[in-house]
Task: structure prediction
Amino acid sequence: MDNKLLKIKKKDSEELKLIKEKEKIYKKIEKHKAWLENKLSNKTKQNFSKIIFKNMDLTKVDFSFTSLVGAEFHNCILNKNCFINSDLSACSFFSSPIENATFHSVVLIDVDFSNSIINDSSFKNCTMADVDFSGGNFKKCIFRDCQISNSNFCGSELYDINFLENNLKKVFFSSAKLTSVAFWRCNIEESFFSNTCFQSCFFKQTVLKKTNFWKAVLIDTSFRNSELPLDPNITRFNSVDKNFCQHMMYMAWKTMQVCSDPEIKTFFESNNDFNKIAKDFEETNLFREIKDAVYPSEIKTTPEKGNSK
Result:
C-alpha cells in the first residue's frame, strides 16, 4: 500500500474519531440539559472537566452548575451561553469569540481568554485570579461584584465596559486601550495602567492605591469623587492629562497640611515647584467649578480672592 493511500486512511480515521467524540460530547450536553430542566439526581449530573470542544456549535448551551475544570474551547461558536455557579478553573477560551454570555458566581482561576473577542457579556460575583485577558477585544460588557486579582488585560481593547463595585488587586492594563470605560465604586490596588490610553473614561467613587499610570494618556477622563493615591514614591504619573496631574498634586498638598507624618511633610515642604503648582491650581476656574464635587469637605480650601474677611 503506497504512502498516499495510508495518509488518506489515517486522515479518514482521525475525522471519524473527531465525529464520534463530538457525538459523545453532544450527548453529555443533552443529559446536562435534562438535569437542569428536571432536577434529576446527582448521578445524572454531567462533568465537563478536561473535555476539548473543537469546531462545535455551542449556541445557547447552558453550562450552569457544572465543572469545566481544564476544559478547552477551540474554534467554537459560543453565543448566549450561561455559566452560573460553574467552575472554569484552568479553562481555555483562547481566540474564541464569545457573545451574550452570562458568567455569574463562577470560579475563574488560571483561565485563558487571551486574544478572545467578548461582546455583550456579563461577569457578576465571580472569583477571578490569574486570568489572562491579554490581547482581547471587549465590547459592552459588565463586571460587577467581582474579586479580580493577578489578572492581565495588557494590550487589550475595551469599549463601553462597566466595572461596578469590583475589587481589583494586581491587575495589569498596561498598553491597553480603554474607550468609554467606567469604574464605579471599585477598589483598585497595586494595579498598572502604564502606557494605557484612556478616552472618555471615568473613575467614580473609586479608591486607587499604589496604582501606576506611568506614561498613560488620559483624554476626556474624569476621577470624580475618587480617592487617589498620594505617595509620589509609589504612584507614578507621566504624560497624563494636565488637569489630572494638578488635581493629584493639589490633593497631596492639602493632605500634607493636616498630615502628622514628619517625612511626608518634609518632602512636600521642601518641594517648591510642587507647592507652586498646587497653589496655582487653586486659583483656576477649573478648581472653582469642581471643588465642591471632587474635593472632600474635610480638607479645607483657602478662601477665594475677595471673599476673605
